[in-house]
Each structure stands twice: as structure tokens, then as C-alpha cells.
Amino acid sequence: MIETDECESWKQTHRSFTGWVKDFGTSIGLKEGIVWRYFTAGKYFQELRVLLNDQGISTPTLDKLSPKVSPENLEILSKLERAAPIDSIIELANKVLDSQITRNELKKHWAVYRPLLQGKTARGLGVTTPKLNLSSPQQMDGLAHADIAKALLFSKGKWTGWNTPSLFRLFFDVTPDHGPAEEYVVFDAVAVVKRDEISPVEIHGIEITTSAMVFGLSKHLLMEKQKPYCDYLWIAIKDKELLPHDGQIPKNVGLITVSKGVIEIVSAPKELNVRSPQSLDLAKGLLLQLLTHQPS
Q1: DSSP assignments along 155-188, one per residue
Q2: Which residues of 72-91 are buried (b: 16+ CB within 10 A; e: fewer)?
Q3: Residue 264: enclosing H or E segment and its boundaries?
Q4: Cα 243–Cα 159–Cα 116 angle in degrees, nearest 5
Q5: How far apart are CA 265 and CA 152, in angstroms?
């Protein structure tokens, strides 16, 4: 398909490459959408191979690529390359090419880094492909936020107080399904945890920050509004340089630091004993995320 496109040999039989692709898919028994996915994955792999070779990583040519390498995984990786830093892409690329990572795990990485593109996509005629801009202070701050989110997501919940919880699920940007606009509250992240099969479900709300501003009055007021929604409430900060002075952490709120992917508990939160209608609103918000295909 790539050779047909580059050599424009499709012109011998068709008016457009799109028409050729449609008929080619029919001839080999595949739907047009699937054929396009293979084509774009193959095109991206050729670009990825150049990137990896530039990093001194030997990569097979497309015709010698293992059939175990999923075109769907290459498709997700191509999206990640626009938003994630180069070291993360190289690590993930090696896992994809060695078939050592699942599609679901890649989707989790995409869920972490996708917000950096602020909803922009590469679709549309004449649209400039959006990419992470490391010279932008705003995007660098967003990248630090994503690094914290990534560490929390792949931590398996050890920071929640249970070393090996039987259930740990993390959701990002959770809005409770509540009523009046003046009570609007959003959580950077929410963890759903069970210590073991017979323990009750715990809801951990998390405020992620890369700035010391989190310890100001406005954040204290926000977290007071968040408390009725969850069983435990945490602040996750970039590193120990942002550690607050005594008395700056809101009452009963836990604090963790994240540095180079390592999570450290500075202080544990106290159970908030939530028995309020707001806790049900947050549960409904989590359910909405599940129903809209949040990565598991």
C-alpha cells in the first residue's frame, strides 16, 4: 500500500488513492477502515524507525517487522509522540515493538498525556499537527502535572495505605454529578480502592499541583468543598522543593511527593467519615466516566 501510494501506481486503475484502497480492502476481505489503519500504522512505523535509529536503537524494516506488533498499538503510540517527552516515547516504542505492552496500558498513557494537547487533533485538511512545546512554560507545567498523574496511575495504589489493595482504579478530571452551579467542584484525580474482597470501597480525592500556590487560601477553600465528596483527600506535589511549612496543609488532608516517578508519603490523611449526598454525586460522576470508555 505504501509503495502504491508513493509510486502513484493507483492512477493506472483508479481516479483516487482512496478508491484504490477501498477496492484493495475488498479484494483481501478487509473493511476499508481496517485497511486504512494498517496503512497509517505502517507509515508511522517508518517514521518511528528513523527516530529510533537516530537514538542508536536498531529497528527492523517494515517487511521484517514481527506480525505480533499491533497496528492499533502503533496508532496509539503515534498520538503519544505528539504529547509525551522523547524518553517516554522511546521506552514505550521498545515495548510496542517487543509486544511487551498491552493496548489498554497504552491507552492509560494516552489518558495521562492527552490533556497537554488541549483537545487539539491532527485531523482535517491543512491542520497543523499539534505537538508538545517544551519552550512553553504552560506546557512544561502541564508535563509536570502529567508526570505526577502517570506515577499515581501505575503505582497500583500503594500510596493509599494498602500495600496490595484488591482493587485500585484511578480516574482523571472527575466532576461529580451534582446540582447547583455555585457548588461546582472538580477533582484532578479520584482513586477507587478496596483493601481486600470484604472491605468497603474507599474513595480518595487527589489535588495535583506543580506550584506552591496549592497551599494558599483559594486552594484551602476548594479542598474544604471537596471533603464532603470523598473518604480521603490528598495533595500530590511535584517534589520536595514544594513542601509546605507547618500549618499550611488543610486539616485532615494527606500529602505525597512525586519525583522521577517515585511516590513518597509525607503525611497520611485522616478518614473524613463521609455520609453526605455529595459522596453519591461523586460516585455518579465516576460511573459516567466508566460509561464513556475510561481506560481500565
Answers
A1: STTGGGT-SS-SEEEEEEEE----S-GGG---EE
A2: ebbbbbbbbbbbbeeebbbe
A3: strand 262-267
A4: 70
A5: 12
CB atoms within 10 A of CB 146: 26
Query: Rounded CA gap, 169 and 203, in Å?
Result: 10
User: Residue 22: how many CB atoms within 10 A of its CB?
Assistant: 16
pTM: 0.79
Strand partners, 189: 172, 206
Task: For cell 489518558, name the residue.
Answer: 111
pLDDT in tens, 224-261: 889 999 999 999 988 776 666 666 777 899 999 988 88
Tens digit of each residue's pLDDT (9 = 90 or more) over 139-189: 788 888 899 999 999 988 889 888 788 999 999 989 898 755 556 788 999
Question: What one-letter code names the amino acid at 149?
Answer: A
How far apart CA 235 and CA 73 sit, in angstroms, is 33
What does the alpha-carbon distance between residue 74 and residue 96 come to, in Å, rounded to a whole number? 7
